[in-house]
Amino acid sequence: MKKTPEQIHYNMQRVKCKNTEIELRLRKELWSRGVRYRKNVSKITGKPDIAFIGKKVAVFCDSEFWHGYDWKRQRAAIKSNRDFWIPKIERNIERDKKVNEALKAEGWTVLRFWGNEIKNNVEQCADLVIAALKERD
Predict the structure, then answer these.
(1) Distance between CA atoms of 83 and 119, rounded to whole angstroms?
(2) Distance in angstroms (rounded) separating the CA atoms of residues 26 and 50
(3) Phi, psi for 37 (deg, rounded to 5)
(4) When comparing pLDDT for 40 and 10, which is higher?
(5) Residue 132 CA to chain centroid, in angstroms?
(6) Those residues with Cβ within 8 angstroms of residue 119's Cβ, 6 or more apart along the chain or in another chain
(7) What pTM was estimated for this model as a whole?
(8) Which of the four, 30, 74, 106, 122, has the lowest number of CB atoms within 10 Å?
């Protein structure tokens, strides 16, 4: 069933850029382990979803669609409005690379988790965050 422009607009307005399900899962796991953090810090390059300012560790929770997980296969799967979506997602991929490079140049450790990694094994993701923090002691 083809959606009307109004339906598409409504759906796109509902896409969250912060406090997403995957962010909340990882934050809840970290909080339950006594790990405290800052969220969506705009003064840090790329505005990480979770930041440990003193330790210089930035964590991003990336959804598969918006950030181009398995992009070669996913690119081919996009059927509608390809002229819009393909360049948009490719810009997101490039921006993510530039953010990683900029943060690393500023001395940050950057962790990026795919949504499915968080959904399927949030404990392991939290373990990796804690390990990165311990490396910064």
Answers:
(1) 31
(2) 9
(3) -150, 175
(4) 40
(5) 17
(6) 21, 22, 25
(7) 0.87
(8) 106
Number of domains composing the chain:
1
Sheet holding 57-62, edge to edge: 38-39, 50-52, 57-62, 109-114
Closest CA to 25 of 120, 131, 132, 133: 120
For the chain, give me the number of helices (H) and strands (E)? Answer: 7, 4
Residue 67 structure tokens: 């950030």
Cα dist. 131→111, 124, 128, 134, 135 in Å?
Answer: 11, 10, 5, 5, 6
pLDDT tens-place string over residues 55-75? 999 999 999 888 889 898 888
Q: In the prediction, which pLDDT does 15 show? A: 62
Rounded CA gap, 2 and 20, in Å? 27
Cα 11 to Cα 73: distance, rounded to the nearest angstrom: 24
Interval 36-50: pLDDT, tens: 999 999 999 999 999
Contact 128, 111 (CB under 8 A): yes
HSE, side-chain direction, 13 A CA sphere, residue 82: 6
Residue span of the structural domain in which 104 resides: 5-135
